[in-house]
Q: What sequence folds into this?
């Protein structure tokens, strides 16, 4: 499982919008890794931000 999959899985299991730091904690990853993965997910349109600094999977 690569970083983007781990990030998506952490977001889905939380069931609510999360900050990058919270995602890193849940996924057991370094925050820098999470930031890189989130950048890819944003570019692909797989995650959205319902409010500033919080992210969730696109429905």
A:
């Amino acid at each position: 499982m690569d970083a983007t999959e781990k990030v998506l899985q952490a977001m889905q299991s939380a069931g609510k919008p999360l900050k990058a730091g919270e995602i890193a904690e849940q996924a057991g990853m370094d925050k820098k890794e999470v930031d890189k993965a989130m950048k890819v997910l944003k570019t692909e349109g797989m995650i959205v931000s319902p409010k500033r600094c919080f992210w969730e999977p696109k429905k």
